[in-house]
Amino acid sequence: TTERGLMALIEKPATEPIPANYSAKGYLEKKSVPKDPWGREYIYLCPGIHNDYDIISYGADGAPGGEGINQDINSWENG
Predict the structure, then answer these.
(1) pLDDT score of 78 more than 70
(2) What's phi and psi for 69, nearest 5 deg?
(3) Whether pTM exceeds 0.90
(4) Cross-strand bridge partners of residue 74
(5) Burial 22-56 (b: 16+ CB within 10 A, else e)
(6) Which among 1, 6, 20, 29 is least buried, having the fewest CB atoms inside 10 angstroms?
(7) What are the Cα distances from residue 70, in Å, to 12, 16, 19, 77, 79?
């Protein structure tokens, strides 16, 4: 879910819906969710607007939109 965010990759959810086959080790080796290239948390939407889930980085400026290094990076156009 959006509320759980990407933390569900490293910690088994404690509230419904709980995945039946969740890996005891989680899904990321480092046990931490990586930041975007500018050190910010990725935005995670589930259900997404474009797909089942959407992942977004707002680029260097941290604001929606932009061009060049400020351009958004997202899972439905760049993934």
Answers:
(1) no
(2) -70, -15
(3) no
(4) 56
(5) eeeeeeeeeeebeebeeeeebbbbbebeeeebbbb
(6) 20
(7) 34, 37, 36, 16, 18
Contacts 24+ apart (CB under 8 A), 47-55: 48/75, 48/76, 50/74, 50/75, 50/76, 51/75, 51/76, 55/6, 55/79
Residue where the block lists tokens 């480092």: 30
Taking the mean position of all CA atoms in its chain, how far away is CA 47? 12
Average per-residue pLDDT for the chain: 92
- 34's tokens: 């990586």
Residue 45: predicted pLDDT: 95
| Strand-strand pairing, 73-74 and 54-57 | antiparallel
Q: C-alpha distances in angstroms, 20 versus 4, 6, 12, 28?
A: 16, 18, 10, 18
